[in-house]
Amino acid sequence: MAGIDDLPPLRDVIAAHGLSARKSLGQNFLLDLNLTAKIARQAGDLTQSDVLEIGPGPGGLTRGLLASGARKVVAVEKDSRCIPALQQIAEAYPQRLTVLEGDALELDTAAHLQPPYRIAANLPYNVGTELLVRWLTPKDWPPPWSSLTLMFQKEVAQRIVATPGSKAYGRLAILSQWRTDARIVMDLPPGAFTPPPKVSSAVVHITALPAPRYPADPAVLSRVVAAAFNQRRKMLRASLRGLAPDIEDRLIAAGIKPTDRAEQIDLERFCALARSFA
Ligand code: SAM
Questions:
Q1: Domain named Ribosomal RNA adenine methylase transferase N-terminal: which ranges (predicted)?
Q2: 143-182 burial, b for 16+ CB within 10 Å, e for fewer?
């Protein structure tokens, strides 16, 4: 069977460029191109979109994205050892791959991408949650991206899609579900990666909603939710006391029992509570 492209197998790329995995950079590579093509397909029809990829490494997912027809991929990689391997992919897909060397937490990629673009990544675990929170909290909504297709540790993926009443339910679930649809679309065992990480992983596909599900000021909602879940075992009348002296009245007006705990409260009632501070 023909491969997804005419480039060498990823094991050869890694050997040729001396890409021994570095733990400090969260390097767990995907070497099976059938698998990276499958992940790329989860991102939807890419033919009309630019795609931002964080941490391409030796380029397995990059090749999957390009082979599935992405109009253009902008790949941000911190490890300079990977850049020549990525340049080889750029040559095989003329005009369609831009490689940027640098830290995704610092680099400004906006100038390279036409919105609404998609984001796809097998994220470095050490920066994954921070990047997600940034993407979910832009200055304006809708954001410049239309979808995020991201690999996380399974435990983080479960926190993104968690519903009230579960242990995983918290700030990340509310932040995600307030303005997006988020689903786990693939589970991957440690053995899918080289070297294998200690825990299982999952791919989450997140699509931006045109507007929030319920009205609320983002900064106020964020403050209320942070205070509620910082002391998640306490009753809300205690954990939120610092927000307002009449917090019990506000909770009742939002349909919340003051003796409830944060993990029992759904998104709609958190938004109602946030609006009481508007
Ligand atoms: N996408 C590749 C794959 O699936 O095989 C590599 C994934 S590996 C989990 C994470 C990648 O992110 C590594 O290549 C690592 O060098 C890169 N990386 C780590 N921290 C980064 C940062 N702050 N900015 C950009 N890339 C980073």
A1: 35-210
A2: bbbbbbbbbbbbebbbbbbbeeeeebbbbbbbbbbbbbeb
- 103 touches ligand 1 (CB under 6 Å): yes
| Centre of ligand 1 from the C-alpha of residue 119, in Å | 14
The CA 78 to ligand 1 mean position distance, Å, reads 7
**pLDDT averaged per 10 residues, the chain (length 278):** 85 97 96 98 97 98 98 98 98 97 96 97 92 96 98 98 98 98 98 97 98 97 97 96 96 98 98 95
Peptide bond into 189 cis (omega under 30): no
114 shares its domain with 52: yes
- Which ipTM did the prediction report? 0.99
Q: Which of these three, 176, 208, 240, is where a domain ends?
A: 208
Span from the CA of 13 to the centroid of ligand 1 (angstroms):
16
pLDDT for position 126? 83
- Whether 5 is in a domain gets the answer no
Say yes or no: CB of residue 50 within 6 Å of ligand 1: no
Which of 156, 176, 208 is where one domain is finished?
Answer: 208
Q: Which among 49, 51, 55 has a CA at the least distance from the CA of 28? A: 55
Choose the residue to mutate in 127, 156, 188, 194 for probing ligand 1, maximizing ligand atoms within 8 Å of C-beta: 127
Q: DSSP 3-state assignment of 208?
A: strand
Determine the structural domain holding residue 159 and report its residue range: 10-208
242 shares its domain with 112: no
pTM, 2 dp: 0.96
